[in-house]
Amino acid sequence: MTTQGLIAPVTEPLWRIRLRLAWRGLTANWRLFKENPIGLIGLGIILFFALMALAHPVLMATVWETRVYDPIIGYDDQIAVHPAPPSARHPLGTDPLGRDVLSQLLYSTRSEFALGLLAALVSVVVATAVGAMAAYFGGIIDTIFMRIADVVLMLPFIAVLIVLTALLRFELIHLAIVYGVLVGFGGQTIVVKSQALSIKIKPFIEAARVAGGGHWHIIATHMLPNLLPLAFLYMMLTATNAIFAEAVLSYFGLLNIRMSWGIMLNTARVSGYLLAGPDYFHLIIPAGAAISLLCSAFYLVGRAMDEVVNPRLRKR
Amino acid sequence: MLSKKRSVVLATLVAAVALVASACGGGPAKGDVYTIAILADMTTTNLWNLLGAGSSAYNFVVQNQYYPTLFEQSDVRFDIVPSVAADFASPLTEEGGMWVCTVDMRNDVTFSDGSAITADDVAFTANLVLDFKLGGNWQSAYDWDFLDHLEAVDADTVKIYYHTKPGLAVHDYGTLQGPIASEAFWEPKIADAVAALEAADLSGLEPGSDEYLAALSPAHEALYAIDAAGEPTAGPFMFKEWETGAYAENEANPEYYFEGRVVEQYANGAHHEYVDGVYDFTAYGDATGEIELEYTTGPFFNSVLYSVYDQDAAVLALLNGDVDYVYNPTGYGTGIQAQLSANADVGTVTNPQNGFRFAAFNFDSPLFADQAVRQAMECMFDKDFFSQSILQGAVIPAYSPVPPEVTFWYNPDVTRFCHGFTAEERMNWAADHMKDAGYSWDVEPSWNPERGGSVEWGEGLMYPDGEYVEELVLLAPSAGYDPLRASAGVFMEQWANQLGIPLRANLTNFNNLLNESLGGGGNFDMLIMGWGLGDMFPDHLCAFFKSDAQPFQFMNYNNRQLDDLCDDFLGETDRDVAREYALQLQEILATDLPYIYIFTNPIIDAYRVDTIEFPFTALLDGIQGEYGLQSVVYAAE
Amino acid sequence: MAKYVARRLIQVAVTLVVFQTLLFVILDAQPGDITNLYLMNPKVTPEARDMIRANLGLDRPPLERYVQWMRNALTGNLGVSFMHWPRSVVDVVLERAPRTIFLFVSAQLLSFTIGFVLGKQLAWRRGTPFEYGNTIIGVLFYTVFTPWFGLMMLIIFGLWLKILPVGKFLDPMLWRQSQYSDVTANTVFYGLIATGLLIGLITAVLLIATRNVIGKKQRNLRAAGLAVLGVVAVVAWALSGIGVLALDMLHHMVLPLIVYTLVTYAGSMLLMRNTMLETLGEDYVMAAKAKGLSDKVVRDRHAARNALLPVLTFLVINLPFALSGGIITESVFSWEGMGLTLLQAVQNEDIPLAMGALSVIGILALIAHLVADVMYAFLDPRIRYE
Questions:
Q1: Do A238 and A224 form a contact (C-beta atoms < 8 A)?
Q2: Angle subtended by helix axes C89-124 and C129-143, to nearest 10
Q3: Which residues face B99 on adjacent strands?
Q4: Which chains touch A (3 or more CB pairs under 8 A)?
Q5: Is A51 on the interface with B (CB under 8 A)?
Q6: Interface confidence (ipTM) of the complex
Q7: Measured in whole angstroms, how far is the alpha carbon of residue C239 from the centre of its chain?
Q8: Is A48 exposed, middle or buried (0-12, 13-18, 19+ CB in 10 A)?
Q9: Is A271 in CB contact (< 8 Å) with chain B?
Q10: Neighbours of B (≥3 Cβ pairs closer than 8 A)?
Q11: Residue in C132, C147, C313 nearest the CB of A37
């Protein structure tokens, strides 16, 4: 007996089916994500910052004249004393060098975003790949990678940065890559590997091997998806830490970038306005709050996505 | 009506009371502890290390005062006056192929343990430095390239022998102001170091070569490692305790020779000082007429406590009353006043700095080797606008490497290009100046009067021979390290670009700047840095600009006229003649422009006005330049 | 297992050498050297500067300096610090390490403990406002700009409320009194560290030995025992004559401890929550609940123990970095410790000091990693090392 009568012929092209399944998966995940208010808050904050980042070039092209509102060399000569408090002309006031604070804030958002995401991406790719391979293959591969992780962990981040900034023209994108690589090869690998070890010994891996699955196939289709939850969590933590690290380094004057939230805080500090009372809060609060909010947002989103991706974390 | 007898008794009583009152109530109030916040801990207490490998501002705050000198510079005016010396030194005379000078010393000055300071101590210290050839700052005190040796003729007379004729820098500001250590204390302790020195095989080694220096090194190490506990010193305060990482403490020196010294500075320039019953000294004019400044020397505190704080926390400690004064050699931003304004017990003092910020040109760069271009750049950089507006008057424009407050040496009449010009006038002048020198553009810079007026940038600048000018690099400190200079760099870039000069500002870290400039790297076309000058004698006019003055002249600059004038200036022993040279040098520098002087920022000191008071607060480099004025500070009423 | 540990120890040695080589290359690669400071002083001639370089041994080629440093390091001689010349690196490190160890080991332990406890609660009360609220608060503290936050705390507690000191680790006005002139800060630090270690060890032994005790009376007895331990420690200090100084240091430690803990607890809290949730989802937990065991027992004795693994790994691996990582806290609170020393050493190119200090931390980190791996195998019988 043939099967022809029992199964309807498949007329839709395969890609269309895959797309539909993916879309269904996406909407299902979105429903799951929505259940978690924390994730929504985080997402909301990120969208807000994304709007801010987009707003800057628009404002500079239309309403704001370059001479006054440029975040680095702008200067408002209509105001006698800088730093000036918030006003209609300058919603967040001006900094000690006469530049508009809101403009600086918006201008830096773009690079901070890129910094966080790029660092996170690099670190996750590196750590997951290395951790999975180390756990799966064991033996000498494991040893080498773990020892590399040790060395990277012990390397003083500041020293490496100081040397690099002296030797290269260092932009935020370089910082993102360096940070991502160092974190990826370092502590994150160790934790991922521990997790991968727990997965490796599970029966289904053994089953897959018995069934004839190749090494890379097993790593890619069986281990990696199970590692993703932890990877996501760390991705968001890395983004947070990268942005935070940049802010602290700029605050201490160890980086050579022209404008960032950390630089805004450093300018306030070097000019002596750090603790100067409520009149000068506009020099500290915007940049400080931005750092805090964006970092938190990344974290909260990561947390919520965690639950989407990891079935065992979902409510039963 | 009182009887005659009664009125006499009454009058006597009143007189007696008045006498007692005047004796007790006069003079500055005394206090117990003067607490200074320092921003890093000390690293050594060994004198030889102090001016050698261990030179740090925080070591000096605590220990600089320990060591007597033959002469010193008076407060505020920085006139050279005798300290341990009794009177001015004899003029330099030639004697048997050498240049000699004799100094008579006071015969009653003692160290803190009561032992006398004699010519033997002076000779011992200087000769030791010369023998060991100690590195670091020692050579600026006793310079073996000029100084041969010192000799104690008798207990109170010291004779100085130079094998090469010294100028003012080496003699008056060098040897005569060098520190004096106690021979009785140090001689027995340096046995190991001397043995190491003798063991060093210097024969056949060329002085100054790497092998020579390496051979001397073990002797230095032995010397620097000596424990200086119990060393007799002669300053207003002497060492008491050092709790590493937390604080150090000095206590008042009961043997301080100058305790109770009254100093009077007259409007006619005269300097008069005396210690009742000990000595009376007048110089630089007659002690008549109006007195500009009068004060008494302490110490007025029992101890000075140096408490280690981080910079931001130091300000908090000041606000909280934990410290009386913050020693901050890097200075505060102007916002510090806003930070302190809420607290009536804290005050600030603003003073000019002995130093300046500048942009240097690299004379290897073909464009900037041309004087016309440099002058055009100087014109385009609007110093007044930058200082008054951008930096909010926080800084003062500079036109000479000598600060205006050093009135004796400063030239107020140097050429100032485009001074007082508007932006349009500057652009026109600069563009015309370059055109006259043969430069041309694809698109000439022009003035656009719309929107308040701005410059239409020039493009495609060409040398007189028609070649396009390639991109040029301006190195400046990063915004994190110094926002003021970073800002100057960015503006310099802007103004240069307006002229069509393709200058790009590269904000980088301090070490990189140092290496490209003083380190000899040379990878820059322009470079923004700053100098902090140590003393009042402007020999930096030559140290920074003479063609052979590496590494401090790092621009490949070669100006024959300046070189010759410098030789005259440095070799001159007469102050007034030297002054003439100095004025001419400043004019040359202002027209040839190896540097564009950008600004000098004032030094701000912060202290508690409710606990301490200073007899004077207006001085070049501020209170921190004198390490907190420990010898004259007194308690507030 | 013994073979595994032995092999790992050899790897520790090799890794250390590789690390030190890499470190030397990085530190030396910075253009210039420590005598750069003299470049800014026109009074110092090039020859005078070269003399200092010769004093420090910087005139020799890098390879020669590297080989000599490595050879010396093998015998425990970590060289002479450039910044504190001619004091040895060991001297400088020993002077500063106790300050950092005391503050940051305590802080990390406190942070971890709070994170652990809260993380457990978060997992158990998942989906409630308690969880959401605590997560947001934790994350906000984690991401607040630490230097500014530290200064604000100093202002609030030091300037306004005046109940805590404004930075530093001791009060000079107390310590300068003549009866304490022979006591150094490190003496008190060592004493406090020893006290802490002793109490910690005894407490750990006690807790592990009595871990299966459930009855209320026995638990109260255990708590009383720990209290007695505390009282003995306090009395011992009071009788030593320098108890006032120890109290002063503890007083100074409070604020940096609080700040550091607040700024870091969220890390272990959220990690604990995650691993706890995963464990709670496991089958054996459901089986335990089905068996009728109380919630508390299920949570603490079944789930938490397994959830503890990654978090404990996290703690053990990070502990050695307590020595170097507290730069912000140390600088804001004027706590002159290893973090600041390292930063200065790196910035000023004091190569021996930087290498020496980082080597010490490096060895500790490598051993910590080994301990963590062994612990993992010990606590999870499914993992085996051949």
A1: no
A2: 160
A3: B94, B162
A4: B, C
A5: no
A6: 0.88
A7: 29
A8: middle
A9: yes
A10: A, C
A11: C132
DSSP state of C158: I
In this structure, is the dihedral angle defined by the CA atoms of residues A268, A272, A278 and A280, taken in order, positive or negative?
negative
Best to test chain C binding among B49, B243, B527, B595 (most C CBs inside 10 Å): B243
**DSSP code per residue over C8-53:** HHHHHHHHHHHHHHHHHHHHHHSSS-TTHHHHT-TTS-HHHHHHHH
pLDDT in tens, B464-483: 888 898 999 999 988 777 87
Instruction: Say yes or no to pLDDT of B59 above 90.
Output: yes
Chain B residues with CB under 8 Å of a chain A CB are 312, 315-316, 332-339, 341-342, 389-392, 451, 454, 478-483, 486-487, 490-491, 494, 506-509, 511-512, 515
CB pairs under 8 A between B and C: 182
By Cβ distance, the residue of B479, B512, B515 closest to A258 is B479
- Which tokens is C319 given? 């502990």
* Chain C residue whose CA is closest to A192: C310
Phi first, then psi: give them for residue B341, nearest 5 degrees: -65, -30
| A239 contact partners, CB below 8 Å, separation of at least 6 | A116, A117, A119, A120, A295, A298, A302
> Binning pLDDT at 50, 70 and 90, where does residue B628 land?
very high
- Among residues B604, B63, B72, B30, the alpha carbon closest in space to that of B306 is found at B63
Nearest CA in chain C to B553: C42
A314 pLDDT higher than 70: no
Whole-structure pTM over 0.90, yes or no? no
Spell out the long-range contacts of B443-449 with Cβ–Cβ below 8 A and sequence spacing 24 or more. Answer: B443/B500, B444/B500, B445/B498, B445/B499, B445/B500
CATH number of the structural domain A33-313: 1.10.3720.10
Tokens of C101: 């160890």
Calculate ∠ Cα B31-B35-B38, nearest 5°: 160
Residues in chain B: 637
Tokens representing B277 are 């019953």
Provide the CB-side half-sphere exposure for B179 (13 A, CA).
24
Strand partners, B252: B237
The rounded distance, in Å, linking the Cα atoms of B506 and B305 is 43
Q: Count the neighbouring beta carbons within 10 Å of the beta carbon of residue B393.
A: 12
* HSE-up of residue B532 (Cα within 13 Å, Cβ side): 15
For chains A and B, count residue pairs whose Cβ atoms are closer than 8 Å.
106
What are residue B92's phi and psi, to 5 degrees?
Answer: -70, 130
Alpha helices in B99-203, H assignment, sequence order: 119-132, 138-141, 183-189, 191-199
Q: Which of B579, C17, C271, B411 is nearest to A147 (CA)?
A: C17
Quick check: C42 and B244 CB within 8 A?
A: no
Q: Could you tell me how many helices (H) and strands (E) chain A has, helices first? A: 13, 0
Burial A65-78 (b: 16+ CB within 10 A, else e): eeebbbbbbbbbee
- Residues of chain A positioned with their CB less than 8 A from the CB of C366: 150, 154
Contacts of C166 in chain B (CB under 8 A): 313, 316-317, 320, 322
Q: At what angle do helices B483-498 and A261-270 cross, to 10 degrees?
A: 110
Please indicate if any CB of chain A lies within 8 Å of the CB of C132: yes
Q: How far apart are CA B478 and CA A70, in angstroms?
A: 18
Predicted confidence band of residue C386 (pLDDT cuts 50, 70, 90): very low
